[in-house]
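Module 6 notes. Inverse folding takes a fixed backbone as the condition and produces residue identities as the prediction. Think of it as a translation problem where the source language is geometry and the target language is the twenty amino acids. Below is one complete input and output pair. Work through it position by position during the lab.
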């Protein structure tokens, strides 16, 4: 059986809160982990008026702005799925990469399944925090991005803009993965 080529795609989302089916995903940013200039970004209309004030504060976004400027969730997820498919060769498998991937993947998976009935990433994600823990043999507490940054020294920083954060996470992934290869 021929091994499929893995295409690592760094994904970040900004939301109105932590509950996948109640809070809204407002923005999605994604990039190819090894070619971060090849990227995708979209703002979505909210699916509800529920929000956690701190979640909106950290992004600087408002529900009104997203309602006015965002695409419908269906249109946004169709565009995202098309981008993923376009950048995954026929013999490839897209791999969702995130920093605290369970959070971001939960929203992306829910939106893909709810609005398109299919998730191009399948049912799994690669979490940079877990990868780092495995490489370094550290505690979960020591997988915070601030701790990882001190070890791998990325050039980029996160700022709660989904595309900027996807690019930052792509750099972290590359650096942590390099550590894993050097540890062999």
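Target side of the pair, the amino acids:
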């Amino acid at each position: 059986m021929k091994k499929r080529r893995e295409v690592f795609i760094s994904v970040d989302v900004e939301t109105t809160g932590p509950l996948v089916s109640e809070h809204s995903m407002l923005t999605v940013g994604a990039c190819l982990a090894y070619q971060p200039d090849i990227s995708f970004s979209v703002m979505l209309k909210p699916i509800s008026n529920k929000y956690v004030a701190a979640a909106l504060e950290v992004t600087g976004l408002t529900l009104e702005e997203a309602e006015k400027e965002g695409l419908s969730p269906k249109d946004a997820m169709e565009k995202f799925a098309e981008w993923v498919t376009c950048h995954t060769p026929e013999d490839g498998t897209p791999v969702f990469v995130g920093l605290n991937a369970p959070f971001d993947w939960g929203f992306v998976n829910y939106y893909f399944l709810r609005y398109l009935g299919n998730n191009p990433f399948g049912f799994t994600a690669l979490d940079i925090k877990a990868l780092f823990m495995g490489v370094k043999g550290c505690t979960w507490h020591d997988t915070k991005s601030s701790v990882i940054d001190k070890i791998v020294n990325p050039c980029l920083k996160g700022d709660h803009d989904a595309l900027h954060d996807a690019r930052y996470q792509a750099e972290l992934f590359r650096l942590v993965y390099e550590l894993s290869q050097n540890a062999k």
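Reference fact for the lab report: The chain has a mean pLDDT of 96.
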